[in-house]
Specification:
By secondary structure, this protein is mainly alpha-helical. It has three domains: 84 residues, no CATH class; 125 residues, no CATH class; 102 residues. 61% of the residues lie in helices and 5% in strands. The chain is built from 17 helices and four strands. It has a four-stranded parallel sheet with strand order 2-1-3-4, with helices on both faces. The two termini are 18 Å apart.
């Protein structure tokens, strides 16, 4: 929700023609970058969008103003990451891949599993699961592509793609459809994440903007549109909105534990009530979400996505405070229930049975 607000704020202020408009747009862009660093993929398209704006001034000055205020918003996180890692060039993601003070002697069981088996070998041994995942990811990417310009820009987007017979399509429509189809084919067998569609998001906005300009040029445009489009647009918008809302409700009901941040607040409250803070302050944090927890818990932490990592780390550090978390999804081939039971069984085994342990199972 916060990233959507930052996106709307950035798009709103970035289209302004005053310096303070661009300054606010830069702050929103920096805030959006904090939520998703992949936002940087949007910059080439945003530069193109600004270049095509009819009210633009000196382009390099405007972009410099946006960049400066974007850095102002990002600087606190960069400084905190510098403090955690000891290197100004490390970012939050570096906590997963480097041996730092926050993550000493870091090893990843997932990386080891990837090195032990080739991709082709995995596909040949699990072709049924791969096909099922590809179909599921393809449906999700298709849904996101249909909603890509945003729910409010969607009607104008389809006006540009599906014009009247007497009008020509927007010139960038064909490249957009080709890029969308390419991403759909390439990404579906791999992994689903809406951010993977970021490279074509600026192009979708330009296509929608062309439809908006057609409406602005002729105020009676809505009355002259083909009845097929007028009948399809409300059904498409309402149907996709309801499907997205129903999907979010189903996901919440399937994951009653809530988000990692909610679990962290519950854990914070439980530790304070049990009087375990003195024991945990000098402890080691075992977690599946290090970039989140290392920010809040300023002490050593180890990424432990599988139970074997927890056991080995507990043996290394001995009698110490341990915070245990595990993901509710898949972990190195283990189902969620199996992974959860494996974590729970470790609490009664040495050396974890000799140290104060707080167990939290979350997303």
């Amino acid at each position: 929700l916060c990233s959507r607000r930052f996106s709307f704020g950035f798009a709103f202020w970035f289209c302004g023609n005053r310096p303070w408009h661009l300054a606010l747009g830069g702050l929103c862009l920096g805030g959006l970058y904090l939520f998703r660093q992949e936002t940087a993929i949007l910059l080439p398209g945003l530069i193109l969008l600004r270049f095509m704006a009819p009210t633009r001034g000196v382009l390099w000055r405007e972009l410099l103003l946006v960049a400066v205020f974007g850095f102002v918003a990002v600087f606190p996180w960069l400084y905190r990451s510098w403090d955690l890692t000891g290197d100004p060039l490390y970012n939050a993601a570096s906590l997963l891949f480097h041996d730092t003070d926050a993550f000493p002697n870091w090893t990843s069981s997932r990386t080891q599993a990837i090195l032990e088996m080739s991709s082709w070998e995995f596909v040949s041994n699990n072709w049924g699961d791969v096909l099922q995942k590809t179909a599921k990811n393809g449906f999700r990417f298709t849904r996101d592509l249909l909603l890509l310009p945003g729910i409010f820009l969607l009607p104008f987007f389809w006006l540009a793609i599906w014009p009247k017979r007497s009008e020509t399509r927007f010139p960038l429509t064909a490249p957009f459809l080709l890029m969308a189809l390419t991403l759909l084919v390439v990404l579906s067998p791999l992994e689903y994440a809406p951010r993977f569609l970021a490279p074509i998001a600026p192009l979708a906005i330009l296509v929608a903007a062309s439809g908006l300009m057609r409406v602005a040029e002729n105020k009676t445009q809505w009355l002259q549109v083909s009845p097929r489009v007028l009948g399809l647009l409300p059904v498409l918008v309402v149907g996709l909105a309801l499907a997205t809302y129903a999907g979010s409700l189903w996901q919440r009901s399937a994951e009653p534990q809530g988000t990692a941040m909610v679990a962290l607040k519950d854990l914070d409250r439980g530790v304070a009530e049990d009087g375990m803070w003195p024991l945990l302050l000098g402890g080691v944090l075992l977690t599946d979400a290090p970039t989140l927890y290392a920010w809040v818990w300023d002490r050593p932490a180890i990424w432990a996505p599988v139970p074997e990592d927890v056991q080995a780390t507990a043996e290394r550090y001995g009698r110490t405070g341990v915070i245990l978390t595990c993901a509710a999804g898949h972990g190195d081939g283990l189902q969620a229930d199996d992974l959860r039971q494996a974590y729970l069984s470790l609490v009664d085994q040495p050396p974890l049975d000799q140290c104060p342990t707080v167990l939290r199972v979350n997303r």
